[in-house]
Design a protein that fits this description.
Blueprint (H helix, E strand, L loop, with lengths): L8 E6 L3 H16 L3 E2 L8 E6 L6 H14 L7 E5 H14 L3 E5 L7 H9 L4 E3 L4 H7 L9 E5 L1 E2 L10 H4 L4 E2 L2 H13 L4 E5 L7 E3 L5 E3 H9 L6 E5 L8 H9 L6 E3 L7 H7 L5 H14 L4 E8 L6 H14 L3 E6 L17 H26 L3 E9 L5 E5 L5 E5 L12 E9 L4 E5 L2
Helix pairs in contact: 8-9, 12-13
């Protein structure tokens, strides 16, 4: 390919999970250390990084669609295009074969080598790097530059669970926990730069383990307790968890660590034991419900969210009814639900009993109706509560502020007359006064 000038501006477009958001932020920080600037919204960039997710349906086709759109809108001056993330890891060679405008393909464990790849691509090469040296990535990345009230911190990557529908073990590799000292240092830097809330991330975040500063073996609960000692850190969250890694100590932390917010995202995927077994989820509906029961005993006001897949191969109407029954029992504050979509190379993709699309559509609608019912009920039950809201941005109206409650609900309020104005990053005491379908109205008390 032809040589091109070294890029001076960039845009990173991230899709999918919060770990991809984190990776996108880290790539942007890395590119900034190379003298590049983020292109303002609406302006062309010399380098475009598509940070992809393989979980969503037709993820690869959407990548090709985005590539075509970028080239079409470039008026003959196409930027350097890099495809990163899980689709890049899973289908890197195919992307290079099919999309000639792509100069770079980089997997989620190798994006710290982007500067070298960009230099080679600018010289006319087409470069692929899908190695998996997980620890090398974090050690090579620059210091955090995040300046926002809420920040992500990846503590664990990869997965050893091998659910039969999931590509993560193949695209992110085996489970690996980042060292405690590195995480504490990164958290301190984030707090020094203004983070009031940190969300700990991992494919199976509650599988994190390590040794603290005194050489003692600790799990995620121990890491949370250590982070809670940071004076200017006000809130801690974590996602995504596996039911089998909810230890007694982690459950206890929900009732004992004030800074750990009363919110738990705990995917179950289905309510039918035969379907869970076919998924290789290694928990039953009953064992999952007992975990929820124990968490609620430790923290009665906790908000529970989850993930569901409908139409998994072999799912009968009776199996789906078991999922609806589980939803009725848990009463989720929020949940994500998807139709099953085969992923090449996963065992489920070749299983017998693939469910027709129209049946999946019907089941998804019924499931989402039940989830929406419970989500609205949770918000309605919050009216009258007083709580703290972490201010994240201004609202559409004059004097309006938007932020998150401890239960991860979006709340908006206007500063009280005569009270001091607020700022992004403030924690404001409010009364929740009205529940809408997607947010709550509040009245500032301070």
């Amino acid at each position: 390919m032809n040589k091109v000038p070294t890029p001076k501006s960039f845009r990173v477009k991230s899709f999918g999970c919060q770990m991809n958001v984190y990776d996108g932020e880290r790539m942007a920080e890395l590119l900034a250390t190379q003298g590049m600037e983020a292109a303002p919204e609406g302006e062309d960039a010399d380098l475009v990084v598509l940070n992809t997710c393989h979980i969503r349906e037709k993820a690869a086709e959407k990548v090709y669609s985005d590539i075509g759109r970028i080239v079409k809108d470039s008026d003959g001056k196409a930027p350097l295009i890099a495809v990163a993330g899980c689709v890049a890891q899973a289908e890197g060679d195919e992307i290079m074969r099919r999309a000639r405008d792509v100069r770079m393909v980089v997997g989620p464990q190798a994006y710290h080598r982007l500067p070298d790849m960009i230099a080679r691509a600018s010289a006319g090469e087409r470069v692929t790097d899908t190695d998996m040296p997980a620890e090398a990535k974090f050690g090579a990345l620059p210091a955090r530059r995040k300046r926002a009230p809420s920040a992500f911190l990846t503590v664990q990557e990869g997965c050893d669970k091998f659910c039969t529908y999931c590509v993560v073990p193949y695209t992110r590799g085996a489970e690996i926990s980042r060292p405690f000292a590195d995480l504490l240092d990164e958290a301190k830097r984030l707090v020094d730069q203004g983070a009031r809330e940190i969300t700990l991330l991992g494919q199976n975040v509650n599988a994190w383990d390590g040794e603290d500063g005194r050489g003692r073996a600790i799990g995620l609960d121990g890491l949370i307790r250590e982070l809670a000692a940071l004076p200017d850190l006000a809130r801690i969250r974590y996602t995504t968890s596996h039911p089998n890694d909810m230890t007694d100590a982690l459950i206890a932390a929900h009732g004992e660590v004030d800074k750990l917010m009363p919110y738990l995202h705990l995917p179950v995927q289905a309510g039918s034991d035969p379907i869970l077994a076919a998924m290789n989820r290694s928990h039953s509906a009953e064992s999952y419900l007992r975990v929820i029961e124990r968490v609620r005993a430790a923290r009665p006001d906790i908000a529970i969210s989850g993930d569901f897949i409908v139409g998994f191969p072999g799912e009968s109407e009776a199996d789906f009814a078991a999922t609806l029954a589980l939803v009725d029992e848990v009463r989720y504050a929020a949940a994500f639900s998807f139709k099953y979509s085969p992923r090449p190379g996963t065992p489920a993709a070749t299983m017998e009993g693939q469910v027709p699309v129209d049946v999946m559509d019907d089941r998804l609608q019924r499931l989402q109706a039940a989830i929406t019912r419970d989500s609205h009920a949770f918000n309605a039950a919050s009216v009258g509560r007083t709580c703290d809201v972490l201010v994240e941005r201004t609202g559409r109206r004059e004097g309006q502020w938007l932020g998150k409650t401890p239960w991860l609900q979006s709340a908006h309020f206007t500063a009280s007359e005569g009270a001091a104005d607020h700022a992004v990053g403030d924690i404001v005491r409010v009364e929740l006064v009205e529940a809408g379908p997607n947010s709550l109205a509040a009245r500032a008390l301070t």
